[in-house]
Amino acid sequence: MKEMVIEKNRTLNWVGKIHAVSLFVAALGILILYFSGVPGFPLIPPGPIILGIAGILVFTLASRWKWIPFISVLAGLFISFGTIIEGSIWGRLTNISDFAPFVGTLIQGLGLVVAVITGLIVLAKAFRPIETV
User: What keywords were assigned to this record (predicted)?
Assistant: First the structure.
């Protein structure tokens, strides 16, 4: 009969590190948009703060608390849906001549896609029980 044991002393693997870095990359993309003067941003944009805190939580706590990636995946999805609902992403991605908004949007989008995918992988690994014989 096989026992199911949950691993206690996990370290953040390479997928978790990519997940955390991609959250920071997405935050950097938003900051590029903000500092390049894209209209519609509040005085202090919440996106980089949300993604930055999520990335810090993943780097510092994900190896100890397996539910931390839930927060980071939710943060990535929240910012992604907000970006899509806001709607100007499509105009910025098709206007390459306006370079800074194009690059910022591209960096933000790629960071968010990678963050959500790798976050789901981290979650799947965190909640997978280890079988012992």
Answer: Membrane, Transmembrane, Transmembrane helix
Considering Cα of 104, then 82, then 41, then 26, what sign does the dihedral take? negative
H and E: helices and strands count for the chain: 5, 2
The DSSP annotation for 12-77 comes to --HHHHHHHHHHHHHHHHHHHHHHTT-TT--SS-HHHHHHHHHHHHHHHHTTT-TTHHHHHHHHHH
Distance CA 97, CA 102 (A): 8
Token representation of residue 100: 């800074």
pLDDT digit string, tens, across residues 17-48: 999 999 999 999 999 999 999 988 889 999 99
Q: What is the pTM of this model?
A: 0.86
Task: Determine how β-strand 3-5 pairs with β-strand 130-132.
Answer: antiparallel
From residue 70, alpha-carbon distances to 11, 24, 34, 36, 120 in Å are: 17, 17, 27, 31, 8
